[in-house]
Amino acid sequence: MHCFAVVVVRHPRTKRWLAVQETSKHNRLWWLPAGRVENGETFPAAAVRETREEAGIDIRLVGVLRVEHTPIGPQSDRMRIVFYAEPMDVSAPIKTTADDESLGAAWTTVPELQAWADAGQLRDEELLNWAMYLERGGEVAPLSTLGAESSGPEPHMEFRVFFQPSKPGHRYTTLPPAPVEERTDVYIAHSAGVGIKHRSGKRLEIKVRTVDAGEGWEAWGKHRCDDADVNTALARLQLPPLPTPSINVRVQKRRVATVVGGLYLMEETDLVVSVDGDHAAWKTICIEGTRHACERAAEALVHVSLQHEVVFTGGYPAFVRDVVQRRATSQLD
Question: Please, where in the chain does CATH 2.40.320 lie?
Fold first, then answer.
C-alpha cells in the first residue's frame, strides 16, 4: 500500500494558509506540505516531518480532515490522510532557501490561491478547496479518530515525570528549540486526585482525575470556574472541601511545548516551588495522548529521570501534595 500524509496549515493570527513551492519534478508549482509515510512511521509523524522538510516549520496537528483509500490495481492501494494543523511558533520564519524537498514556502490567502489557480501556478486546487471549506466553518475530526489497532477506544492520558537535578543549576533539555512561556501558577493543595489552580482574576481551574492507570498514567477532566470561593466551586462539582488549613504552593515555570514524532511533549524547566518561604527547584516532562501511542516515548522519559536523585511520577495534584508533605517533614530542600 502507498501511504501519504497531507497537511493543511493555517496561521492562527494572520489566518493565512501555508503553501509550498515544489521542485522541478512537479514543474515548480505550489501545493500543500505532503509526502509518503516511511516504513515504521505513523501518519501524524509523517505529517510533522514533511511540513518541517518542505516549509521549514514545526506544526501542531489540530485534527483530521479526511481519510482516503483508493484501490489502484489488483495488488496495490493508495491511502492518504489529510490533517489540519497550526504552526507551533507563530513567529517562526518559513523556508526561503531551495533544496531537494522544495523551493520554499509562503503564507497565502484564498484570493491569492484563486489567482494562482487561474494562472496555472497550482499543482491542483486541493489547498484552495480545503481553505474555502474551512473558512466556511467546515468540520474537523479530532486526532483521536486515528489510532493503532486496539481493543477499543482509550482515554486521553497524561504521563508526567518530575525530578530534582542532582547538581545545583543543572539544566537538562529534552526538546528541540521552541517558544518559551514564563509564568507563575498558584496551586491549592487538596488531594492527589484533585488539582486546583488560580487563573487570572477570580478564575479557577479544577482538574479531577478520572482514570488512574498506574505507573504515572492518568486521565483528567478539566473545569474552569468563575467562583471567587474555592469551596463553592468544589461543592458544585460534588467534591470535598479544602483541608484546613489550606496551603498555597507557588510554582514559577519556564514552559516549552512541541511536537516530536507526532506526539505532544511539554517540558517545564526552572520549576521553582515555594511553600511559605521554602523553595525547591524541580523540572517536569509531560507527554500527552493515549497510553498505547505514547508508551515508547514515556519509557525514554523514565530512563532519563532515573539519572536524577529525587524523582516523582504523576500529575500535578499528587506532586503538590507530595511537596507539602515534604515541607511538613522538613524534607523540602
Answer: 157-331
- b vs e for 221-237, b when ≥16 Cβ sit within 10 Å of the residue's Cβ? eeeebeeeebeebbeee
Please tell me the predicted confidence (pLDDT) of residue 162: 86
Q: Which of 121, 110, 91, 93 is nearest to 28 (CA)?
A: 121
CA distance 252 to 255: 10
Q: How far apart are CA 199 and CA 221, in angstroms?
A: 16
pLDDT at 216: 84
The residues, ordered by sequence, that sit 6+ positions from 181 with a Cβ below 8 Å of its Cβ are 253, 254, 255, 256, 257
Query: Which CATH fold would you assign to the domain 157-331?
Result: Hypothetical Protein Pfu-838710-001 (2.40.320)
To 5 degrees, how large is the angle CA 322–CA 327–CA 330? Answer: 125
Mean pLDDT calculated for residue range 87-106: 90
Calculate ∠ Cα 221-219-271, nearest 5°: 90
Q: What is the pTM of this model?
A: 0.56
What's the pLDDT band for 308 if we cut at 50, 70, 90? low
Query: What pLDDT was estimated at residue 76?
Result: 85
Q: What is the distance, to the nearest Å, from the Cα of residue 179 to the centroid of all Cα atoms in its chain?
A: 13
Give start-end residues of each CATH 3.90.79.10 domain in the chain. 2-145
pLDDT digits (tens, 9 = 90+) for 231-242: 888 888 899 999
Q: For 2-145, give the CATH class.
A: alpha beta
**Strand-pair partners of 34:** 6
**Amino acid 115: pLDDT:** 96
